[in-house]
Specification:
Layout: H1 6-23, E1 30-34, H2 40-48, E2 53-56, H3 59-68, E3 75-78, H4 87-93, E4 96-100, H5 103-112, E5 120-126, H6 142-150, E6 155-162, H7 170-188, E7 196-198, H8 205-210, E8 215-218, H9 220-223
Parallel strand pairs: 1-2, 1-8, 2-3, 3-4, 4-5, 5-6, 6-7
Helix pairs in contact: 4-5
The protein binds pyridoxal-5'-phosphate.
């Protein structure tokens, strides 16, 4: 096995994050492999190395891979901004939606989740650093959204997700992660079913884990650099 291949990177990353968590007295985080812009073949390869949870940003792109890999026991997470007109497809085809940030989306996902499937796992996306123009609800709105999700039998409230500003300053990012953990703990007192705090990407996963993340979303550090960025508007 070549040192630089994704399977090797996966096991190396798992070990590193688990030891980070252990140092902080926490359980190892769940690792979500972010497969946007990657081929179905690359997903298959990482699955062969033991990875089952994959994250995608764009519904259309994801559906092609979900169809192509229908025979594999994979868990699909939508982590990109979700437009309401794509909520039906998302509710029907994904296992998790991590980017729920408004009540209209809660209603659409709940309505369209087929009754014969397990409840759709949902995270509330919080705009933790109040960056203008960014997706995510305010910290103050999170409780109201959690309540709405918890009331819908076709949805399962699992926790919170955040994407802190891509600030060069890791101390600023660490503070954002800490604020998220505090909000998560406060909400969990009211919604004990919440077990997931999704934060941390390739560049700051270790910091996020040290600050109490339970799920990291990793693309580049597993698959290598992405060739080109798909505009967010196409999600
Ligand atoms: C692309 C993306 C990631 C993964 O980013 P990397 O830096 O490649 O690890 C994680 N979360 C979200 C929401 C993303 O859009």
């Amino acid at each position: 096995m070549a040192l630089e291949d994704p399977a090797h990177r996966l096991s190396e990353l798992r070990t590193r994050l688990a030891s980070r968590a252990e140092n902080a007295g926490l359980s190892p985080p769940v690792l979500l492999a972010v497969s946007k812009t990657r081929t179905a073949g690359e997903v298959r390869g990482l699955h062969a190395a033991g990875q089952t949870a994959f994250g995608e940003n764009y519904v259309q792109e994801a559906l092609e891979k979900i169809d192509a890999l229908a025979g594999l026991p994979l868990q699909w997470h939508l982590i990109g901004h979700l437009q309401s007109n794509k909520a039906k497809e998302a509710a029907e085809r994904f296992d998790w939606v991590q980017s729920v940030d408004r009540i209209k989306l809660v209603d659409a996902l709940a309505r369209h989740r087929p009754a014969n499937l397990p409840p759709l796992a949902v995270l509330v996306q919080v705009n933790i650093d109040g960056e203008a123009g960014k997706h995510g609800c305010t910290p103050a709105e999170a409780a109201m959204l959690c309540e709405a999700i918890a009331a819908r039998p076709t949805l399962a409230l699992r926790g919170l997700m955040a994407i802190p500003a891509p600030d060069g300053d890791m101390a600023v990012r660490g503070a954002a992660f800490r604020d998220m953990r505090r909000l998560f703990d406060a909400l969990r007192a009211r919604f004990p079913q919440m077990d997931t705090l999704s934060m941390g990407m390739s560049e700051d996963a270790e910091l996020a884990v040290a600050e109490g993340s339970t799920m990291v979303r990793i693309g580049t550090a597993l698959f290598g650099p992405r060739a080109a960025k798909t505009p967010d508007a196409l999600s």
